[in-house]
Amino acid sequence: MLKHELRKKYKLLRAELSENQISEQSLRIVNGLLKIPMWDFFYFHTFLSIPQNKEVDTHALITLLQGKDKSIVVPKVTGPNTLSNYLLQDHTILKPNQWNIPEPVDGIEVEPSKIEVVFVPLLAYDVLGNRIGYGKGFYDAFLQDCSPETLKVGLSFFEPEVEVIEDVRDEDIRLDYCVTPKGLHKF
């Protein structure tokens, strides 16, 4: 399938999820993260969920990272296809941007080269770890600035597409793992 077809399909599938399903499945996903060998790392980057888009709720993930004394980094859109990354602290003020994504107003900026694990937002992905986001290219550009060793972990309510995504581009960055309510996929 093509990216635009998969975006449409998974937006519809997400729309069918109830708040209760999102909450329960998000907790299963966070528990599944414990199986990934990444807990010796220090800098963890996570997206902040957009509830109206019925994304995986990252609040439990943030709580888990705080409990393990990890440095949590969150993104802020700072230009076309450009993310800056800020340390999430107790006093960090978050405001929704033009796409209703919560992001820090300001704070301590963290260079992409320091980030060791990135929890990547996605709509769909395939059995090779190719992911499809919302199509703006923010995460592909950001991941190119990270170290090649940075672990890329997708969070999804759904299992991978068995058919490989047809229109993958050279600049599309593959996932290393994806965690779903049913289990862990390693690519």
Automatic annotation (TrEMBL):
Cofactor(s) needed: Mg(2+)
InterPro entries: FTHF_cligase (IPR002698), FTHF_cligase-like_sf (IPR024185), NagB/RpiA_transferase-like (IPR037171)
Documented EC number(s): 6.3.3.2
Superkingdom field: Bacteria
Gene Ontology MF terms: 5-formyltetrahydrofolate cyclo-ligase activity; ATP binding; metal ion binding
Keyword set includes Metal-binding: yes
SUPFAM superfamilies per the UniProt record, alphabetical: NagB/RpiA/CoA transferase-like
Chain residues that bind ATP: 3-7, 131-139
UniProt KW Magnesium keyword: yes
Binding locations of substrate: 50, 55
GO biological process: folic acid-containing compound biosynthetic process; tetrahydrofolate interconversion
Catalytic activity: (6S)-5-formyl-5,6,7,8-tetrahydrofolate + ATP = (6R)-5,10-methenyltetrahydrofolate + ADP + phosphate
Keyword vocabulary terms for this entry: ATP-binding, Ligase, Magnesium, Metal-binding, Nucleotide-binding
Enzyme class: ligase
Entry's family note: Belongs to the 5-formyltetrahydrofolate cyclo-ligase family.
Protein name in the entry: 5-formyltetrahydrofolate cyclo-ligase
